[in-house]
What does this fold into?
Amino acid sequence: MSYKAEDLWQVFENLRERGVRVHCLTNSVAQSITANIMLACNIVPSMTAAHDEIPAFVEGVDGLLVNLGTLDGKRRHGIRLGLENAAKKSIPVVLDPVKVDRTDIRMEFAKDILQENISILKANMTESAGLSGAVREDTLLVRTGNEDAVFGREATYTIGNGHAYMDKVTGIGCALGGVLAGFAAVEPDQELAVVAALAVYGVCGEIAAEQANGPGSFTPAFIDTLYGLKADQFNERLKLETMNNKGGVLA
It folds into this structure.
């Protein structure tokens, strides 16, 4: 399947018009910036990790983000509660296995929950390599880096948008997980949803960097750009390549 710029943009437009709710079991360092970035996309976040509240919060959302950044015993139990309740609703679940290569405990926990209802795995090269063999066939792999790649059933999509400042601000990468969950909640075609989210994120990073003097001023510019991005800006900057998994560039 080959997607055009207008296909991707329509997903973002649908999200802006409809709005969705996503519960984020994310790391404490990234909560504030994650919430603000999600709100700029019309994704309403909730963040509680309290065990007695997670079932009720997940019951009322359209997607779930699981981020392993600040992982402790309490948070691990909360993640399992979140996954259990998300499965009852059949909502999209994004897993961001932050730094799973650093400890065996983290790696084994990630491999364990990958056998649950994980819709999308968002990981960098090192993280995805460590988890190879543990990813179910029905989980969509998103590999982030200088170029982002989405490994679909029939095609691999490479998005070349973005800017170096995005790696210089704590939480920008973690916030992407919440954005992915929001896009996936509004678009049934999960491959289209993920490619659209990555493309919008990367294009906004480029535009914001042109307005910023450095990482400190980049963050507010990025949030403003997500909120106000126009179709013509997106279409002009999109860098998307589609490779058929049997070989051959589709677009």
Summary: The mean pLDDT is 96. The longest strand covers residues 20-25.
